[in-house]
Design goal:
This protein is α/β, with parallel strands linked by helices and 403 residues long. The chain is built from nine helices and 18 strands. The strands form six sheets. A seven-stranded mixed β-sheet has the order 11-12-13-10-14-15-17. A three-stranded antiparallel β-sheet has the order 6-3-9, with no helix packed on it. A two-stranded antiparallel sheet has the order 1-2.
């Protein structure tokens, strides 16, 4: 693992040895106890108020450390930058930050909710994957703010709060992803911490807002870019009757969002002296893998060729199927030309070392005019493909190369 690691909550990087501890503020072996106090760093960085045990440094990379004042043993390891409590085994298992970006009304929040729900339920159990919340806040927020409104209330989301409205704080959802790898002596589970941050489309309305509000992009291990095909002029006439047609021009157009994300990532391809890094960054291209996801595929489903890979039933199992993914990739690239979105492919090919196209439908059918899930219910299609590709790029999920 790299010497520096990124906090899954504030996305700042630091060496593992800099991780701090928080006293449990209960009596230690000597009978004394530390008094709880306000943590101003936690308040300023994440808006968390209340009195907590004091912070202390310990010369250990382990999971336990005694408080130097009261000697009570603490298991609360915290980020040295934002003072958030770090998940269990942070720094011992892979830690991957996933940036979820896209234009306003592109369906990012719906997609993220359905993706996580599928991994925790249908697809996860069928593929041997296990996904669970890594902290209590994620557990509570995912249920109350995401899963319950969509799956129980059938209500779509009314837009993600911008980073400006959130006082420049990021509040990601952090999960533990596990997959059982087959070994000669049985299955051994391997775990990866996944941090998802759902940006508001408004955070990509200008280059200035990108710089101010999405600093986490610089430290993201992978990017999932959600695009609405109905924003492309060649795809709009192909939409099913009754489909909501989004705006096609201005700051929220797919080409503009991709351009701003690329401009944000490009400065990080070079070393401290400004020169391009040899090897890893290639000829100046971005090494961060980016999954370019065309959502709402159901709106153009009727126009797809019967033999299109996008109509094929996706293979299952605990491996990522490379051949199937490449077939979908080439099919979407072909459709891009028909949809008059070829400039998207040109930008990706010129600036990224690893990118892959995907076509998905989070809901399976267009929502009602009242922004409710269709009466047919939620019928997701290929929603896990982009994340499993990223995890296969990281080595967290094995690949199936042959058909």
């Amino acid at each position: 693992m790299a010497s520096d690691i990124a906090c899954p909550y504030c996305y700042e990087t630091f060496p593992v040895r800099d991780i701090l501890f928080r006293c449990i503020a209960r009596p230690g072996p000597t009978g004394s106890r530390c008094r709880a106090e306000r943590d101003q760093v936690l308040e300023e960085r994440r808006g968390r108020r209340g009195e907590l045990g004091p912070v202390f440094a310990a010369r250990t990379r382990g999971q336990l450390a005694p408080c130097p004042t009261c000697q009570a043993v603490s298991t609360f390891r915290i980020c040295p930058v934002c003072h958030s409590t770090l998940p269990a085994q942070f720094g011992l298992v892979d830690n991957r930050l996933i940036a979820m970006v896209g234009a306003k009304a592109s369906g990012k929040t719906v997609y993220m909710t359905v993706l996580l729900h599928e991994l925790m339920n249908r697809v996860g159990s069928a593929g041997g994957f296990a996904l669970m919340a890594a902290d209590d806040e994620t557990m509570t927020r995912f249920d109350s703010d995401y899963q319950d409104p969509l799956y129980q209330g059938g209500e779509l989301f009314h837009g993600t709060r911008t980073a400006v409205a959130n006082d420049h704080r990021v509040d990601p959802l952090v999960f533990r992803f596990g997959v059982a790898r087959r070994r000669l002596l049985g299955a051994r589970p391997e775990h990866t911490l996944l941090s998802f941050f759902d940006t508001a489309g408004e955070d990509f309305s200008s280059q200035e807002s990108v710089q101010l509000n999405t600093r986490y992009l610089a430290n993201a291990d992978g990017v999932i870019l959600i695009l609405d095909p109905l924003q492309l002029p060649g795809a709009r006439p192909l939409a099913r009757p009754g489909s909501t047609l989004p705006d096609t021009a201005g700051a929220d157009s797919p080409i503009n969002v991709l351009s701003r994300v690329t401009s944000m990532l490009l400065p990080h391809r070079s070393g401290p002296d400004g020169r391009l890094l040899p090897g890893a960054r290639g000829a100046g291209r971005i090494s961060t893998p980016i999954a370019v996801v065309f959502a709402k595929l159901d709106a153009v489903w009727d126009t797809l060729d019967p033999g299109s890979p996008l109509r094929a039933h996706p293979p299952g199992g605990a491996r990522f199927h490379t051949a199937d993914s490449l077939d979908v990739h080439e099919e979407v690239r072909h459709l891009l030309r028909e949809w008059r979105g070829g400039s998207i492919d040109q930008i990706l090919d010129a600036n990224y070392r690893h990118y892959r196209y995907f076509g998905i439908s989070a809901l399976g059918n267009s929502p009602t005019a009242e922004s409710q899930v269709a009466p047919t219910g939620i019928q997701p299609y290929r929603v896990t493909d982009p994340l499993l590709w990223l995890l296969s790029e990281f080595g967290s999920v094995a690949r199936q190369r042959r058909r």
